[in-house]
């Protein structure tokens, strides 16, 4: 197995723990090195595990971040062979299973713009929190991030993307009702987490962007989503937690709104959809960024030298003055060659 040396993270010349290292970066303190994080789909992970000869990649590569999510009755990464062709989650959404990633929502349970006869799952169900206390204890030296759910995304899973976008224009009352119910589910989940577990940050997963524009108008986002996202942020902040928001695609028109309602960290700042360096210049004094490595072209099709150059440039420019954690713009996929995975990891860990 290749020998991997742990990184030495410093601020003001003093060694930092992994947890303190990430906190320092997110508070926009100047650190000697930029923190990094990587997440893998099963094929990408298998490639690295076979290369390094161990399944303990996070330990081997000294990831300063540990993240988890609450348990679902749907496996995060199931395959048609192990889980069946279609698996329903606790909300009743049917997911087509894939050997490559988490699958796709293909069977929304709300055929009509109505919640009549539909029952939301119990946010306090015991299975959701199984093993979480042990996980928090085991990761106490890391920066710990817990994914608490999805709001707009969950609405699209329940109704279907096309129908949900039509509902925005045609049925405001239903949209308000549905998003209120989902928000309450997330808030109840968060209340339990904050009361029972020790961790650093919450993550809301809620895609609003396409490759070139938002999937809804900024006006619709401000009407339907901003006040509810603000409630989630406020509850986390009330209990001293950092707020991390994942939204793929082009969302530049609402970044100022997200900051105004209390966002601390924006992820994954996809460089194919937004100019990440402009975002740093425009918002970097008020917002931390997490992500930024191109996954649509560079990682699957570039050379290892090109990967190293981009990672080095991101560390230099995005990491200037703190406020940045290096990560690819999406979970690493099966199309990334081993040589590029290794180039990215090695350059991320380099001084």
Explain how this protein is built.
- 41% of the residues lie in helices and 14% in strands.
- The chain is of the alpha/beta class.
- It has a single domain, classed as TIM Barrel (Alpha-Beta Barrel), CATH 3.20.20.210.
- The strands form three sheets. The protein has a seven-stranded parallel beta sheet with strand order 3-7-8-9-10-11-12. It has a three-stranded antiparallel beta sheet with strand order 4-5-6, with no helix packed on it. A two-stranded antiparallel sheet has the order 1-2.
- Helix 6 crosses helix 7.
Concise structural overview:
Helices cover 41% and strands 14% of the residues.
Helix-strand sequence: EEHHHEHEEEHEHHHEHEHEHEHHEH
- Rg of Cα set: 20 Å
The unreliable regions are: none
Q: Give the distance, in angstroms, between the N- and C-terminal Cα atoms.
A: 22 Å
Quickly list its features.
single chain, 351 residues, alpha/beta, TIM Barrel, 7-stranded parallel β-sheet, 3-stranded antiparallel β-sheet, 14 helices, 41% helix, 14% strand, globular
Topology:
Elements: E1 10-11, E2 14-15, H1 18-26, H2 42-52, H3 57-60, E3 65-69, H4 80-83, E4 86-88, E5 94-96, E6 104-107, H5 132-138, E7 143-149, H6 152-159, H7 161-170, H8 172-196, E8 201-205, H9 218-238, E9 242-246, H10 255-260, E10 265-267, H11 276-283, E11 288-293, H12 298-301, H13 304-317, E12 324-328, H14 338-349
Parallel strand pairs: 3-7, 7-8, 8-9, 9-10, 10-11, 11-12
Antiparallel strand pairs: 1-2, 4-5, 5-6
Helix pairs in contact: 6-7, 8-9, 13-14
